Amino acid sequence: MPFREMSREQMWMLPPTLDELLPPDHRARFVAEFVDALDREGWAELGVEMGGEPLGAPAYHPRALLCVWLYGFMTGVRSCRKLETACRDQIPYLWLTGWQYPDHNTLWRFYRKHRSDMRKLFERTVRTAVTMGLLDLAVQAVDGTKMVANASKDRVYDAEELRALLSRLDKTISELEAQNEAGEDEPAVNLPEELADKKVLKEQVRQAMDDLAGRGRQKCINLTDRDARLMKSSQGIVTGYNAQAMVSPLEPSVGANGMLVTAADVVDEPNDSAQLVPMLEQSEETTGARAQVTLADAGYHSGSALDECARRDRKLVMPESSRRRAQHHPYHKDRFIYDQCNDSYLCPHGQTLTPVGSIRSPNGTPRRVYRASAATCQACPAFGVCTNDLLNGRALTIGPHDAVLRRHRTWMSTREAQEISKRRKQLIEPVFGIIKEQQGARRFLLRGLVNVAAEWILLATAFNLRTLWRIWRSGAVGFLPCSPASQPIP
User: DSSP states of 102-144 as a string?
Assistant: First the structure.
């Protein structure tokens, strides 16, 4: 087939406008519509005074700077310098800024000043979806993903290694000071660069030792990012954070597939078990409603979380971890029947186990111990399978949450729970995949727990905007209300 003619000297009879170069359903237009719909109260929540300063050179409009950051996080551009370049040579950014070129310092100052308030934007995306009836709260799913920190794993030290490093630094600094004093030249006004660097590092080590001493059971600390922790991920052991998200699907009537993040947070604990209740509370606060069913994986399973959710009447579908799945054993403790009147347990062979005392688990939780006599167990045909203890007989260790654990196991064994559980992966896993692959967030760029939490919130906000944009593009939704009777800022 013939080739099309191509010329890089093509000219227009009439020059096009910037607006003509951007398709009408482009996501940059949606970002602008979302930001332009912010009223004065919305800008105030972000800490932005829309009146501007009466004196000085004109500043870039906050609408332009916020649009650049939101669009950048939606498309995987999160570096200030890359955003500066994009504002000079990419049409969507040129359109968003009105053909202005904010530099990386301007973009960074705006981001640094207002990133802690970006949660208000995240909440606004969720409220927008709820107000317009886009969110299906029949089910929601929660999970965590390990995000690599902006810190090297080689900079992780325990207390002994920090003391050894401090000793080496003291020796090196003494040698450098001696060399500096032995010279015939006049003493320099400023410290030599190498000596100054060593003293800065020494101060970092001292601060890290103080931080580590006040963190209880934490054994290691990273000198670059003292909040980052060693965590097990799909890429092996990494220095990172545990990023949490709660998601709900769109209403089927919307005519578009997708999910919305209704709660997001970052913690420095590798384990998810303590995050279930806080994520449930945040989701309910953001949406103003309670999901009918919450899906979670085995990492969230704990007696305390189940007990708290039972008291609040939350319906959970959550399996136990593989190391706890011993219910199939014929003499698992769930097969022992509790007699509340006599405070005793009846074993599958009709023998009675009575309370003999209490112990404390490694985390300090009190547990009661019930035991059968050694003679009874030795005479039982199940001896050797149920217990091998010749001196004391079979014992049951019962924690304070044992009753709620039993009820949850019974619920999880039903067909309904097993069918609902199959939806968890298809709800939550694509969200993390999109954030990491399409939004380019395989690692955090900032350091410190507070800062990475703000970065994760902005990533979740950008994810929600991507979902809302697809609905907006389809024509099912033609406007985005920010708040009741809101008036955009000109």
Answer: --HHHHHHHHHHHGGGTHHHHHHHHHHHHHTT-B-TTEEEEEE
